[in-house]
Model the fold of this input.
Amino acid sequence: MGRQGQEKRTQRALAAHGSLVRAKESLAALQSDQLRSLGLTMGQFRMLAALHHHGPLSLVALCQELACSHSNASFVVGNLHKRGLVARKASEGEHASTVIRLTPEGQKLIARVFPVHATLVRAQMSVLVGREQETLHRLCGKLVRTDAGRFVREFAKADAHEQVKG
Done:
């Protein structure tokens, strides 16, 4: 592919990425304001919701579910634990880890907050018809599941190309 074709692909990728980031930030700003008014951060809400939907999870499983770092998850769990919303218990066995579960107080809070939050998300997404929402879900999933090594190889290839030219 020629230089002009690569530049066009780069511009198209940058435009798509920029639109995705702006949309995410726009949606998240209103959601964060709503959650803050209900006494939660977005990270706390996401963790409570994950535990609500999946039941008790190890810290490792929570990190995978929420796509966050171990240190970030530990920080959020610590804050939720201080508020009495989650309990931590060391699991036993060959692969010992910490299991996190909702307390009765945490269950009550997420049961009250989740429907309110879901209503806001439904309203925000209502600008897209059902099929568009399904397509967006599928495309975002594809981005999440993409092989990270592919990005590294593409970058290395472009970098090598630039070095040869320079």
In short: The chain has a mean pLDDT of 89. The beta strands are 57-58, 86-90, 98-102.
